[in-house]
Amino acid sequence: MPVTSKFVALKNYIPTGLPKETDFEIKTKEISLDTKNNILVLNLWISVDPYMRARMTERKNYKPPFNIGEEMEGYALGIVKESKDKNFKEGDIVFSNFGMRDYFVCNSNDLKKIEPMNIPLQTYLGPLGMTGHTAYIGLFKHGELKPGQTILVSSAGGSVGSTVCQIAKNMGCKVIASTGSDEKVKWLKDDLKIDHAFNYKKIENLVLHLKEICPEGFDLYFDNVGGDFLESAIYKMKNFGRIVICGRISQMNATNPGSGLKNMAHVLVKRLTIKGFIIFDHENDREQFETDMAKWLLEDKIKFKETVYEGIENTPKSFIDLLEGKNIGKMLVKI
Ligand code: NDP
Predict the structure, then answer these.
(1) Contact 187, 255 (CB under 8 A)
(2) Any alpha helices (H) in the chain, and if so which ranges?
(3) Residues within a 6 A CB radius of ligand 1
(4) Pairing outcome for strands 237-245 and 218-223
(5) Distances, alpha carbon 103 to alpha carbons 60, 100, 152, 187, 321, in Å
(6) What is the DSSP annotation of 204-224?
(7) Mean pLDDT of 164-188
(8) Is the pLDDT of residue 1 over 80?
(9) Rounded to 5 degrees, what angle do the CA atoms 79, 98, 128 make?
C-alpha cells in the first residue's frame, strides 16, 4: 500500500456519432485503504455494454453522464486482495459496479460475493448477469412469451439477443434471428439451433424478407435495435402481438434524429402492445431468474459465447468495436 490503479476516463462528451479512441484516456492514481474504504479489489473481468454510450453525452437519461476525467463505471468481477472487513477475505470473488479500472478500494456495501459454480466466472457478467437478466425479464415479464409462439429477435448474435433466442427455443417457440455477420448467423444456426437466422446487412427489403421467411407473422418482437428495423417488424406482427423495446442501438450513434415510425396505423389496427423496460428497475426481481438460469447453464441448455479483449488499455477499443458489431456474444475485457 498504496497501490497504483489504472482506469479509463472519458476525455470529453460525445453528443453524436461513433466514439473514437481519442475520446478516452487511460489514467492512473494512487489508492489505499482507509477507515471508510477498507477492501482492496483487483478486477479480473470487465463488462462492456451499449448502455454506456448514453452516459457519454450530457443528455438526461436513466443513469447520469460519466464525469469527465474520472473513472468510468460498469459491472466487473474481481478478487479481494486485502480486507479489513470481517465479511470479506483475501481471495474472495466479488461483483461490483467498479468496472473500467484494475484496482479499486471500497467497502462491503459496494460488493456482492460470488460463490463460483461449475461454470466460467465471467458468466456472471453474461447470461447469469445483467444481460441474461435483461433477456429473462424482457421475455417473460414484458413480452409474456408463451410456448409455441413465433418470435423475432434483433441483434441476436449479441449477449442479450443470443440468450433471448435460446430461452425462446427451449420453450418450444419458433425463433427468427437477425444479426450483422455471416459468422454470427452460422453460430445461431449451427450451434444454437435457431430456426432461421439472417444477416440484415445483406437484405435489400426487410419487410419482404420477413414475409418470405415467416408468412404467419410474429407474436413477439424483441427489439434490440430500434429505427428502420422496428418499423419493418411492425408490418409483420400478428394481431394482438407484443413488441418489447429493449434497446435502440441502431440509433445510439445517429447524427440526426431520423424520421420516426411511419406505420403507427398498424399498431392500432393490429392492436399491438409496445412496451419499453429498463433492467435496473428489476434489481429486486432476480431470484427466479438466477435459479432458472443457473439450472439451464449447468444443463447446457443455454450456451455462452464471449469476445474478449485483454488489458485495461484495450477497453475503449472494445467499446467502439461493440458498437460496430465486432463482438459475438458478450463483450468483455480481461485484466
Ligand atoms: P450486443 O452484444 O448485442 O452488442 C451490440 C450489437 O449491436 C453489436 O454486436 C451489433 O451486432 C449490434 N448493432 C450495432 N449497430 C447496429 C445497427 N446500426 N443496427 C443493428 N444492430 C447494430 O449488446 P447487448 O447484448 O449488451 O445489448 C443488446 C441491446 O440490448 C442493446 O441495444 C442494449 O442497449 C440493450 N440493453 C437494454 C437493457 C435494458 O435494460 N433495456 C439492458 C441491457 C442491454 P450486429 O452484428 O447484429 O450488427
Answers:
(1) no
(2) 130-137, 159-170, 182-186, 206-213, 227-235, 264-269, 287-298, 315-323
(3) 49-51, 131, 134, 155, 157-161, 179-181, 184, 224-225, 246-247, 249-250, 277-279, 322-323, 325, 327
(4) parallel
(5) 30, 10, 41, 35, 24
(6) S-HHHHHHHH-TT-EEEEEES
(7) 98
(8) no
(9) 70
Helices then strands, each counted (H, E), the chain: 8, 15
Q: pLDDT class for 201, splitting at 50, 70, 90?
A: very high
- Our measurement of the distance from residue 46's CA atom to the centroid of its chain's CA atoms, rounded to an integer in Å, reads 13
The answer to whether the CB of 200 falls within 8 A of the CB of 178 is yes
For cell 481519442, the residue is: 22
Best probe residue, ligand 1, of 139, 160, 200, 223 (max atoms within 8 Å of C-beta)? 160
Cα–Cα distance measured from residue 161 to residue 174, given in angstroms and rounded to the nearest whole number = 15
Rounded to whole angstroms, the Cα distance separating 319 from 69 reads 17
CA distances from 90 to 46, 85, 96 (A): 20, 10, 16
Give the global pTM: 0.97
Cis-peptide into 15, omega within 30 deg = no
Query: Grid coordinates representing 116?
Result: 463460483
Backbone angles phi, psi at 191, to 5 degrees: -95, -40
Atom of ligand 1 at shortest distance to CA of 251?
A: 18
Beta bridge partners of 29: 5
Cell of 315: 477497453
Supply the pLDDT for residue 228.
96
Q: What is the pLDDT of residue 107?
A: 97
Q: What is the set of domains in the chain, with CATH numbers?
A: 3-123+305-334 (3.90.180.10), 130-280 (3.40.50.720)
Name the grid cell of 317. Answer: 477499443
